[in-house]
Amino acid sequence: MNLDTTLERCLQQIEAGESIDGCLARYPDQADALAPMLAAAVQIRSHAEARLSQTQRLQAKATLRQTLAAQPSAAAVQKTARSRWALSLGGARRLVAIAAVAMLLVVVLSVGVVASSEPGNPAYAVRVIAERAPALVNRDSTVRAAVELTVAERRLADLQLHLQRAGRLEPAALRALLAGDAAAARQAASAGRVEQLRVAGRLATHARILHVLADRVEDPRSAQLLNEASRRTMALAMRLRAAPSSQPPGVQLPTNDMPATNRQPPPVSTATATPMATADPTATPTATATATQAATATVSATQPANATPSPAEALAPKPPVEPTQAEGIVPPRPPHPRQTALAQTATARSQTATARAATATARASRTPGPPGPRQTARAQTATARAQRATARAEAATALASRTPGPGPGQTALAQTATPNPDQSTATPTGPGAQATPTDPAASSHPPQPDSWLPRRPD
User: Fold this and answer.
1) How far is CA 273 from the centre of its chain?
2) Opening angle at CA 179, ends 178 and 182, nearest 5
3) Is there a contact between 134 and 97 (Cβ–Cβ < 8 Å)?
């Protein structure tokens, strides 16, 4: 059901004696648009006996022309449409609202709106409704908030003028002022942050003016009403200022669990940084020994039949051993490429981190006097990198050492790879020698391909 049909039904129900709230409860989807129109209709009925003079009619027509000229969309509709009956029944809701408000303005100005009416006159309430009509036409929250504030400031000026002339408070002007401020705050709540702050500033100005008027008025009841209105308006301003703003997501700050290459060194005071920068055990951990263990653990996991050399023997150069010309010997399976690559990568990173930590510690120690915060931070960063590299190397070593025991196929492979006693093989002798498996592909007489296959155990 469109808006004009709903409005007509509500007006008929109000004529029959139903309240505005009852009509709005029947149409909850259109309650926001119907509420101001129904309130205006009720106000018009209460002032139906008011009549305009010829001068007041001319002023009302001039006000109507100015109001319509301030709405570009309404003017465009009037230029393109030959008559109001030419509008399509399935047109946009905005055009229906504009037409309804324009008709309402014509009715209001023809039966009782006095453009120059002041607070206290019977037609003042109708004037208030007519001046708020442009805010009901526009659907933009920013424009509606600006129009509501402008109308509220007119009511504030009427209130001040009436206090100066009559020396008493006009409740109708005060109620219209509070209604305009509340409507502006509602519209600004759905607008941008800049508009919210602008509306909050103007509302705070209204609250301060009301507080000043409360101090000047002599009537205690009027002073109480003005102070209460000032508090309510200031509460609206504070609520808008405290509304959450939509800020772009900030840059994520590095934390301790992020990689050290993307993190700036934390500031450390000079008093606590001195022992940490020059502590050699912390800055230079024994990462070389860990890397050697990772390399030898990989070999021992894949060659259970050979003896595991010591770390010093593993780093020493190996003399080439001539392969034996034994046929029917299956070479042992080489180490797993992934485990070997992980161990080598961890070893290289550990050595690099250790060298950087040593360099940073040396630079900090060569500086006369206590080291500065920047040198201390570099030394701490290098130390942390070395510790992480050492931990990764140890993890690679543990991964290689946790290789499961040989199964039936691996046992047969090891038995096949074991040389016979009467065949000459390279046996490691001495502290610096290391056992090297025989490679049949490197001999001058390689065995046949069929003899390389593993034998099934009996």
Assistant:
1) 37
2) 85
3) no
Which pLDDT score is estimated for 155? 86
d(CA 95, CA 306): 93
Name the pLDDT band for 302 (thresholds 50, 70, 90): very low
Map 23-84 to HEC letters: HHHHCHHHHHHHHHHHHHHHHHHHCCCCCCCHHHHHHHHHHHHHHHHCCHHHHHHHHHCCCH
Nearest to 38 by CA among 49, 22, 52, 53: 22
CB 324 within 8 A of CB 425: yes
| Torsion angle (degrees, nearest 10) of CA 292, 295, 300, 301 | 130
Q: Which two tokens stand for residue 398?
A: 């543990």
Distance between CA atoms of 417 and 454, rounded to whole angstroms? 9
Question: Which of 28-42, 80-94, 258-272, 370-384 bottoms out in mean pLDDT, i.e. has the lowest?
Answer: 258-272
Rounded Cα gap, residues 404 and 408, in angstroms = 12
Neighbour count for residue 271 (Cβ, 10 Å): 8
From the list 293, 252, 262, the residue with the least C-alpha distance to 385 is: 262
Round to whole Å and give the CA distance between 60 and 206: 28
Contact 96, 3 (CB under 8 A): yes
- CA dist 193 and 199 (Å) reads 10
Distance (Å, whole) CA 12 – CA 4: 12
| Cα of 12 vs its chain's centroid, Å | 50
Residues 412-454 pLDDT 10s: 554 554 545 444 444 444 444 444 444 444 444 554 544 445 5
User: What's the farthest any 2 CA atoms get from each other in the chain?
Assistant: 137
**What angle, 0 to 180 degrees and rounded to 10, lies between the N-to-C axes of helices 3-15 and 93-111?**
40
pTM over 0.85: no
CA angle 122, 184, 179 (to 5 degrees): 30
**pLDDT higher than threshold 70 for residue 333:** no
| CA gap 93, 185 in Å, rounded | 24
Note whether 191 and 141 are within 8 A (CB).
yes
- Alpha-carbon gap, residue 111 to 44, rounded angstroms: 8
Determine the Cα–Cα distance for residues 97 and 92; give it in Å rounded to an integer.
9
What pLDDT does residue 107 have? 52
Written as one letter, the residue type at 228 is E
Q: What's the gap between Cα 130 and its chain centre?
A: 43
Handedness of CA 118, 124, 130, 131 (dihedral sign): positive
- The rounded distance, in Å, linking the Cα atoms of 253 and 259 is 12
